[in-house]
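To whoever is on call:

I kicked off a structure prediction for a single chain this morning and the downstream step that reads the tokens threw a length-mismatch warning. I double-checked the sequence; it's 164 residues and nothing unusual in it as far as I can see. Pasting both halves so you can look.
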Amino acid sequence: MNSENPPQGAFAAFLLAQVGAQAAKRFGERLVPLGMTPPQAGILRLLARSGGLSQRDLAERLGIHPSRLVAILDEMETAGLVVREANSGDRRLYSLQLTAAGRERIAELGRVARQHNDALCSALTGDERVQLETLLSKIAQEQGLTPGVHPGYSSLGKGKPARR
């Protein structure tokens, strides 16, 4: 079999699922030394870009069940990565902020993400990487996916109670 051509019957959707599952597994493995899970990493990344979000706004952006988000944020707060601060505009809401440790962890996550991306795409040239990213972005947009948010958040906590 020619390594440049996919096997007959290897549909793009299957290949995307296959590579995506492998990429997610390997990324999770790379986070273990940081003591983080992929959902925590994604939340930290989003808070670094959009600091001051309320828990409600964050849950909405992620498409995650609010009770599951509370459990994840509790873990992250215990780890010293985020703090909940009273929202000056609405006393019923809390604003989520990164701590100094959270900002340091973002830098570590960036390094891990770059290493992960480089390893995953090592078979591609620079031009092929750009082309792949362009095509995948086009598919993601057509599918209505939120840029920068993994669609797996929406299924977190379904069928099991939130941990406290």
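Update from on-call: the warning came from a stale cache, not from the record. Cleared it. Sanity check on the structure: The radius of gyration is 18 Å.
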